[in-house]
Specification:
With about 220 residues, this protein is mainly beta. It has 2 helices and 18 strands. The N and C termini lie close together (about 10 Å).
Length: about 220
């Protein structure tokens, strides 16, 4: 997370290497909303409050990206909206790709916790650009180990304690105690936009604002 799901990856490989055998949507895909990490299956999709996936048209891909051609509006229940998914059907179906909603100023980078950082629960990342109460998730880097104590896909708060230009700590609540990191490791961190609804409402993404990249 984020990126093509296992199903999406296999569909692309079949399309390229097996004479167009990949199975893709026959029309514009359906976009879902998620209250927590969609993982590789489109998990944690919203339910209730009149919510339904929306069929969305996208412009032609260029320079490694594409985006929606018009505004998308969903009815949503009370709770959080943090991520999106791409499906080949309005209900059930196959999830092809997932991604987090980003802030206006995205922040993503490499986080490293060395032996000297474990005691203080510091995550080192040069010029990370994070501020107090930013919401971040961590991702596993292939063949590397995430710092012990952090859970991939969980949304954390950046806390003021220990926050410097090149280091930060995280907690499960705003201003809470730093997560106890017990072993060294490396991870990708990503700032996430969390939109909370106190009751049923509408969530909208303006035209051109759902940008999907080949490296998502």
């Amino acid at each position: 997370m984020p990126g093509l799901t296992d199903y999406g990856e296999l569909a692309v490989l079949d399309e390229i290497y097996n004479a167009g055998a990949g199975t893709f949507p026959t029309a514009d895909p359906y976009i879902s909303l998620h209250s927590a990490d969609p993982a590789d299956t489109g998990a944690n999709e919203l339910t209730g409050g009149g919510y339904a996936r929306q069929q969305v048209a996208f412009g032609a891909a260029a320079a490694g990206t594409l985006s929606n051609t018009a505004a998308i509006t969903w009815s949503v229940p009370a709770g959080n909206v943090v991520a999106w998914g791409v499906w080949d059907a309005v209900t059930v179906g196959n999830c092809l790709q997932v991604g987090w909603f980003n802030t206006a100023t995205p922040a993503v980078g490499l986080g490293i916790c060395r032996a000297a950082d474990v005691t203080a629960n510091d995550i080192q990342s040069t010029a990370h650009g994070l501020t107090t109460d930013d919401r971040v998730v961590f991702e596993v880097i292939e063949q590397l180990t995430i710092p012990a104590g952090l859970t991939a896909g969980t949304i954390y708060f950046v806390i003021a304690t220990g926050l410097t230009t090149d280091a930060f700590r995280v907690a499960t609540t705003s201003g809470g105690a730093a997560i106890d990191i017990t072993a060294v490791g490396s991870t990708i961190f990503r700032r996430v936009l969390v939109t909370n609804f106190g009751g049923a409402g509408s969530f909208q993404v303006a035209g051109g604002n759902l940008q999907i990249f080949t490296t998502e």
